[in-house]
Input
Amino acid sequence: MRAASFMAAVLRRAAEGLLKFLAWIGEEPISGYRPEAHYMRGPGPAWRAKHRGH
Output
């Protein structure tokens, strides 16, 4: 009897933790492409070589 109540408490805590985690994930929707997160650092050596004479 005591082992069963202990297991029930463990399972209840695990379920609560899982639900909290899922709620935390769901707080902010998954966004698409964010250009500010993928900024460019400027032209590279291939671009410079191609445009050197212009």
